[in-house]
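Hi everyone, sorry if this is the wrong subforum. Our group has a chain we'd like a structural model of before ordering constructs, and none of us has done structure prediction before. Sequence below.
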Amino acid sequence: MLFNHLYISFRAQIRMRSRFLELAGLEKSIRADIALINLGIAEKQERVLYFNNAGVLFFAKEPQRFVPWSVFTVALFKDDAGVDIIDRKEIKGSLFEIVEEVMKFVRMYSKVAYRFTGMPRRENVYEYAFNAIREAVINSVMHKYYFEHGHNNILRFLPDRIKIENYWQKPTNFVLGKTVFRRNHIIADLFARIHFGEKMGTGFARIREVCKKENAPFPDIEFDENYFYLTFKQSREYLKLIREESAIKTTQKTTQKTTQKIISLIKENPYITRDELAKLLGITPDGVKYQLNNLKKNGTIERVGGRKGGYWKLIKKAN
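Answer:
Right subforum, don't worry. Here is the predicted structure as tokens:
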């Protein structure tokens, strides 16, 4: 890819050096111009330092002034068809800033379930495997076909899945899972320097590893000559906890309704028997016994007299 070269001011050199060297863990004493040239993102012409293409995308103050199609669109949808938009953002900045901002969006709208371990702190189980999605976002900006000016990468956050759309150019003889390629070599190297990815094309292997560790499905993959799609499904562990939580809530609601029915029937007929309650409620006599015992324990009712000739007395209003 070839953009117009951009003159680098001394202030920009300092800004770039401090930010990038901090992420890369490199020696800060190195001269800015030497560091930028060694990274392959700048060159000197007649003693003036200029950015090349990767330098613009990584370190220009406003990269989208020069490369508008490097914007990353993120959108949250209310419906499964992806028509009704709740929130949408056009994320701008350097490529590594874009990755972080996309992930902030994903984290902000992802749901969480809780696993109670008996320890003081509960364990959070998130809807999606964040590290796997992050890897996919990194790969989408690394392998984007920047010659095409009409398309930007998109992340669609749907009710039960996240779909990442990347505009690319399919390599010749490409075989998914076997072909190793780097579309933009310098960009891939820069991401590797700040530990956002590896130079060797092992992105899918890392995604698979993360998904396995977090009990999340490996994403569905679709691609043609120009588009590459990754669709992430909700974590199996998250769905399991949500079902368990739903079952508990359903049981609690059912129990509460049964309790209210028993109290209403006792109000109508204090002499009603357990068998009569069971028949009217459609539950077993043991189930009625369990409910009555709970009502007696919490002080809602009391039994006056024996099984024969006795009756139920309401003491207080049930919660």
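For your construct planning: Confidence is low (pLDDT under 50) at residues 1-5. Residues 236-268 form the longest helix (33 residues).
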